[in-house]
Amino acid sequence: MVQLQNQFPENYSFAADGTMGAGEMPEPDVHIITSGGQSMPAHSRILASASPVLERLIARPQKRRSSVRKIHILGVPCDAVSVFVQFLYSSKCDEEHMEKYGIHLLALSHVHFVPQLKQRCTRGLAERLTIENVVDVLQLARLCDAPDLYLKCMKLLSNNFKAVEETEGWRFLQNHDPWLELEILQFMDEAESRKKRTRRHREEQSLYIQLSEAMDCLEHICTEGCTNVGPYDMDPNKNKSPCSKFSTCHGLQLLIKHFATCKKRVNGGCLRCKRMWQLLRLHSSICDQPDECRVPLCRQFKMKVQLDRKRDDAKWRLLVRKVVSAKAVASLSLAKRKREDEPRVSTNYHGMRSYKPNLN
After folding, report:
1. Which CATH number covers residue 2?
2. Number of structural domains in the chain
3. Gene3D superfamilies per the record (predicted)?
4. Domain at 252, CATH number
5. Which terminus of the chain has a lower count of CB atoms within 10 Å, N or C?
């Protein structure tokens, strides 16, 4: 058992306000009674200053007149109570004690309102979570209002549910706490739904980024020309090197070539041509300089939209906004990368600026 008498030097005493000062250590005036019936001497001022719950218990009127007050801390091992009281004296708890009594210390810190120890136990138990103990720790975190530990337990349980199902703790939970079992299953269902929503959002964002790149390539092809396709007034024999988005640009050039020679597009029977029509319409919806734009049919699509605004459906407007947003994000990311690649400017102590290369 931890010997509390040796926690402080003998030449310390307590002032009238309860603070420690030089002098003799006062005699213990409180006895803590544990589940094993053992009595542990302690000092009421230390206990009261560390825990408001213990302070109320100490201030409670006694039924019998006695020089020593008694406080019962039951339901946990005697050694765990010793470590708990040691923390009230020293505000320290080593790893060995946390390993042995972490669960009991969390319960004691919650019941007696010792936030510092509760945070220490929450971190310690989170670091020691396993498949075997996660159900027990989860139940305790729920009872002791430890949301960080509760969430960590839920995530571990959700990610390793098949293995947790085989443990004794899970079988006990099913037989004695069906509400917590339902809570766990609901958490797992919501977690799976969040994963699906996140996956769908990423796929949508990837599509919008691809469409944004396609818009840039379409304007690039129709203005400057690329490897195989360019404006009608540009020399076709002039050699063009691949652009920075050549994978997207090359596919778009093949689509433009097909669109120019396809026989089915007149009757709307070609899927590739329909895709080209949609790209041209999307460019027209985004373009803010239709009078100067060299992309085919840009002005025509603009005029058609102005004449027939009722048919400009909500889904199409949403698509246009998403592509514009993706284009803005991509341009900001590109500008940020350029700034990071540029040499950094620093000022020396003479006030003169010097250049430092970016080594990251």
Report:
1. 3.30.710.10
2. 2
3. 1.25.40.420, Potassium Channel Kv1.1, Chain A, TAZ domain
4. 1.20.1020.10
5. C
Paired with 354 in beta bridges are 346
Q: Tell which wins on pLDDT, 29 or 121.
A: 121
Are 152 and 129 within 8 A, CB to CB? yes
Q: Looking at residues 253-271, what average pLDDT do you find? A: 78
Q: Are residues 111 and 217 in the same domain?
A: no
pLDDT digits (tens, 9 = 90+) for 171-197: 999 999 999 999 999 999 998 888 888
Answer yes or no: is 141 within a domain. Answer: no
Q: Are 209 and 330 in contact (CB under 8 A)?
A: yes
Q: How many CB atoms lie within 10 A of CB 318?
A: 10
Q: 89-120: b or e for each residue (b if 16 or more CB lie within 10 Å)?
A: beeebeeebbeebbbbbbbbbbebebeebbeb
Cβ-contact 252, 218 below 8 angstroms? yes
Other beta carbons within 10 Å of 76: 19
Task: Read off the pLDDT of each residue in 323-335 and give the average, rounded to a whole number.
Answer: 75
pLDDT tens-digit readout, 75-86: 999 999 999 999
Q: How many helices, marked H, and strands, marked E, lie in the chain? A: 14, 7
Q: Are 81 and 34 in contact (CB under 8 A)?
A: yes
The answer, yes or no, to whether residue 240 has pLDDT greater than 60, is: yes
| pLDDT, tens digit (0-9, with 9 covering 90-100), for 90-101 | 999 999 999 999
From 46, 57, 56, 36, select the one nearest 84 (Cα to Cα): 46
pTM: predicted TM-score of the whole model, two decimal places: 0.59
Do 25 and 123 fall within a single domain? yes
**Final residue in a domain of this structure, among 76, 92, 127:** 127
Phi/psi class of residue 225: alpha, beta or left (left: φ > 0; alpha: ψ in -120 to 50)?
Answer: left
Angle of helix 134-143 versus helix 168-176 axis, rounded to 10? 40
Let me know whether 4 and 122 are in one domain.
Answer: yes
Nearest to 93 by CA among 110, 77, 111, 80: 80
Instruction: Report helix, strand or coil for 30.
Output: strand
For 145, the 3-state DSSP assignment is coil
Helix (H) or strand (E) holding 354: strand 353-356
CB-based burial label for 202 (10 Å; 0-12, 13-18, 19+): exposed
Range of the domain at 119: 1-127
